[in-house]
Amino acid sequence: MALQSIVARNVPPGETAVVTVGTFQSGIASNVIPQSAVMELTVRAMKPEIRDLLIKRIHEITEFTAKSYGATSEIEVYDSYPVLTNSEEETAFARALALEVFGSDKVLPSIAPMNASEDFAFMLQARPGCYFLLGNGEKGGKGSCMVHNPGYDFNDDIISTGATLFARLVETHCR
Length: 175
What we know:
Layout: H1 6-10, E1 17-26, E2 37-45, H2 48-68, H3 88-102, H4 120-126, H5 159-173
Antiparallel strand pairs: 1-2
């Protein structure tokens, strides 16, 4: 439970950060005290210094909690995905083109920053670009969940919408 309080107690209001305990595995029988336990966490933050603080606090909490029970702890940190940051110029370009193709009723004015892991972040470290959400369906309807959600269902009806936008982005950029 202490891990779940890290963000609330350590991250300034207005900053975005998440610590998620994704898995907890221990033992194989209900009547045997397990010899070990493994937890896997995801740590996300918009700023590297906030992420570093979260990892530091995870180390402290797990070490002190283990000691309080006469146990030990080990932590392995995998630096996997960097923060995905869009280029302002490329984002303005993609947004203007989406407005031209689909109209203002189909393009959101903006969205709040998201703490999602995405491979495209590596591309944006090498070249300026824009990662955007295409939309997968109406809220509560088919495809309304984000990826990495057990209820996610790709909405085949948006394939032509996506293909149209990507084709126009390439055509316009290559002129």
